[in-house]
Amino acid sequence: MPAADHPPSSPESAPEFSHLVSTARLGTKSATYRLAANAAERAALAQRFDLISLDRFEATVTLKREAGEAIRLEGEIAADLVQACVVTNEPVPGRVVDRFTLIYRADIDEATADQMALDNPEDEIIEPLIGDSIDIGEAVAQQLSVAMDPYPRSVGAQSSVPSAEAMDEDDEPGASTGRRNPFDVLAALKKQS
Predict the structure, then answer these.
(1) Which among 93, 102, 104, 184 could bridge 71 via Cys, Cβ 3.0 to 4.6 Å?
(2) Where are the domains of the chain?
């Protein structure tokens, strides 16, 4: 199994979990890389993603050259982390396991890639291939940020915050949808004033 190349860049410019792979080495056969963040990398990623802690972060990444010089990245990440509850700020332990695919192409730039994602959100994500390497460490770090719970809640916060179902019980009798129309709420507020 090939090892990822490590960049000779300065700490200010390098991502927290940088693992560069030269695209010149890639052929039509898959190359698989296994990554595990060390304590310093986990601490830096925890700070970047506003985590209380990142106790484990591992990834398996497969790269393969496709027709038209595109490069397919298939990744799987696994992480144990602790986030702050959005209501109480208490620690909320969590586990993330996720699979994802990215397609790198040299014939597009960031703006084109963003537009393609907006136009076809169901398609595979296309990323610009800049230079002669892919930072698979940064790719998996970005996927971790996407896969984490955006609104972690502690057990106590979940019981103290009304659920959507509980809010539905406050609806006026005879409401057929089980949810209040926002315009009805505004009309009721207008009547009160």
Answers:
(1) 104
(2) 20-161, 163-193
d(CA 37, CA 47): 14
Please give the backbone phi and psi of residue 127, each rounded to the nearest 5 degrees, phi first. -120, 145
Reported as a single tens digit per residue, the pLDDT across 17-47 is: 999 999 998 988 999 999 999 999 999 999 9
Q: How far is CA 33 from CA 2, 77, 91, 111, 191, in A?
A: 6, 12, 32, 29, 64
Burial call 59-71: b when 16+ CB within 10 Å, e when fewer: bbbebbbeeeeeb
pTM to 2 decimals?
0.73
Residue type at 148 in one-letter notation: M
Residue with tokens 């009721």: 188
User: Alpha-carbon distance 102 to 125, whole Å?
Assistant: 5
Report residue 35 CA to chain centroid gap: 17
How far is the C-alpha of 88 from the C-alpha of 95, rounded, in Å? 20
Q: Give pLDDT, residue 120.
A: 86
Cα 104 to Cα 121: distance, rounded to the nearest angstrom:
16
With tokens 């009304």, the residue in question is 162
Separation of CA 60 from chain center: 16
